[in-house]
Amino acid sequence: MKKILITRPMPDAVVVALAKAHKVAVRDDLQPMSRDELIAALARFDAILPTIGDAFLAEIFAAAGEIRAGLLANFGVGYNHIDVTSARAHGVEVTNTPGVLTDATADLALTLLLATARRAGEGERMLRAGLWQGWHPTQLLGQHVTGKRLGIVGMGRIGEGIARRCHFGFGMEVAYLNRSEKVLDFPARRVDTLTALAADVDFLVVAVPGGAETRHLIGAEVFSAMKSSGILVNIARGDVVDEAALIAALEAGEIAGAGLDVYENEPQVPEALRGMENVTLLPHLGSATLETRTAMGLLAADNILAFLAGEPPISPV
Ligand code: NAP
User: Fold this and answer.
1) Closest to 5 (Cα-Cα) out of 24, 21, 20
2) Domain coordinates of the chain in residue numbers?
3) Do domains 3-100+290-308 and 102-281 have the same CATH topology?
4) What is the pLDDT of residues 58-105, one digit of tens each?
5) Distance between CA 303 and CA 295 in Å, rounded?
6) Ligand 1 pocket residues where CB is under 6 Å
7) CATH class of the domain whose range is 102-281
8) Residue 266 region, left (φ>0) first, then alpha (ψ -120 to 50), else beta?
9) D-isomer specific 2-hydroxyacid dehydrogenase NAD-binding domain spans which residues (predicted)?
10) Whose CA is nearest to atom 39 of ligand 1?
11) Domain 3-100+290-308 top-level CATH class
């Protein structure tokens, strides 16, 4: 019987799947693990099921001494909180949960796009504050969504899911930036540069992985290139967008609004953003449906079961 650590409370089915054959400890804390907890976990468990915020950085592996864990089965497709190179150098494999959260996250991108363009948050806040005095023809006029131009930064699984919804559901023209060529079964134009894409579209949606390569990819230059009616949506990782430059662009009216699910220093969200009516702010809800979170946990669990049985992991990074 091997020892497994799940670093946050999970849907029951996930714990049940692992506890059939192994000894499972579930950390009863909603916050990410501390440095000491990370180091201790590497020494005490055969496999760990970590998630966002559990910062398995190079320094943790270096400080860990004798490492018992052979696998970090990350709960989530994004794994920028894990230094994969250091993990491998210390004999620790890493897996993630691609695919099972694509639809939920694409749905949430549309939630942000629609809510921001149609001023849904502003309307809700007005109504709840008891300030609604009835319908009139010029109240809270937003931007039309159907038929507009969409730009996707990072045409991967989720980027494609968003583009598909926008093309088939909203009759939008789709353009995108991606380093490699994509084969798509609907019309979409690949653009060479980020600024050309930004200048061309009404809604710019960010769906690249986080990490050093994409840090502040969306910055001042992109905001100046965007139309003043443009809306930015970010469902990727907070540090892909230069948050200070975004605030400056919104304050200067360089862009019309933003829909954000992720932030540079979660859970801190700058006061400046919280004070703006033209931004929609969600607390990192991309994959937050019971079905999706269960599927993510079961895929992470399957990776652990395969690894502990000496088989190749299902979704290595
Ligand atoms: P994916 O299939 O790997 O897609 C990422 C896409 O980005 C790929 O097409 C990749 O293609 C492209 N890309 C990477 N670097 C790029 C760059 N510098 N410039 C342009 N394109 C670039 O991953 P996914 O499953 O769609 O997930 C994407 C990210 O969404 C995850 O890594 C995660 O951080 C985030 N996410 C957030 C939530 C949430 O709760 N908000 C939920 C799920 C996922 P090339 O490498 O060919 O360029």
Assistant:
1) 24
2) 3-100+290-308, 102-281
3) yes
4) 999 999 999 999 999 999 999 999 999 999 999 999 999 999 999 999
5) 12
6) 77-78, 98, 101-102, 105, 154-159, 177-180, 207-210, 213-214, 235-237, 261-262, 284, 286-287
7) alpha beta
8) beta
9) 110-286
10) 286
11) alpha beta
